[in-house]
Write a structure and sequence with these properties.
The chain is an all-alpha fold. The chain has helices spanning 11-14, 16-29, 44-48, 58-86, 102-118, 124-149, 156-181, 188-202, and strands at 2-3, 35-36. It starts with a strand and ends with a helix. 30% of the residues are buried.
């Protein structure tokens, strides 16, 4: 299947948001390979010589990434996804578009600020991690399931299991590392590790 461009217009005329959404849905749902032609007037021969295999669409990669990141810092993960969706930098699945509402972004931003400081103090971070064992893992499962619900509803349970497992893995690794670091009297390794975790999630 060759699709010249969404709605018969150049991608530049459609805009990055609309084009990204349309192409992503096509890649996710089409049962046959798709060759996306950027210029309708471009000869097919030149296109076939530079075709790259499409391994996954943006929406297919999002569930695992969001679940993994939520195990490290749930609020930062939700905040980043919400801001990317609200600014048009990423086309979120319809089932995740609630993350880009001002209310969710504001709540995630507030809780991220709380976690940013709580995560830097030995002892406080352990209590915070213990509490969030019951928050990060279910949230990772929900994020993963919601991300694939629009593409294939039957995959929701499998995505939830995978998302919860990924979130549990990163959460337990983080909590275990903090317990080891807190045996040291100096606070700098704890602060440095926390900043590194924040950077990984945001990036």
């Amino acid at each position: 299947l060759i699709t010249p461009c969404p709605y018969g217009r150049d991608l530049e005329a459609v805009g990055p948001d609309s084009a990204g959404t349309v192409i992503d849905v096509l890649l996710a749902r089409s049962p046959v390979p798709i060759l996306v032609v950027r210029k309708p007037c471009e000869p097919p021969g030149g296109l076939f010589r530079r075709v790259n295999m499409i391994l996954a669409s943006e929406n297919e990669a999002a569930p695992a990434t969001a679940a993994w990141a939520s195990g490290l810092n749930l609020y930062a993960a939700i905040l980043v996804l919400g801001l990317l969706g609200a600014t048009g930098s990423m086309a979120l699945p319809e089932t995740l578009q609630v993350l880009q509402t001002p209310e969710v972004i504001g709540a995630a931003g507030l809780m991220y600020c709380v976690e940013f400081f709580a995560d830097k103090f030995p002892g406080v971070d352990n209590a915070w991690d213990t509490l969030h064992t019951f928050i990060r893992i279910p949230a990772g499962a929900v994020l993963a399931a919601s991300a694939v619900a629009e593409i294939e509803p039957s995959l929701c349970l499998a995505a939830a299991l995978l998302g919860g497992t990924l979130a549990a893995g990163t959460h337990l690794a983080k909590a275990g590392t903090r317990l080891l670091l807190n045996t040291s009297p100096e606070p700098f390794s704890n602060i440095g590790t926390s900043l590194a975790e924040d950077t990984v999630v945001v990036a």
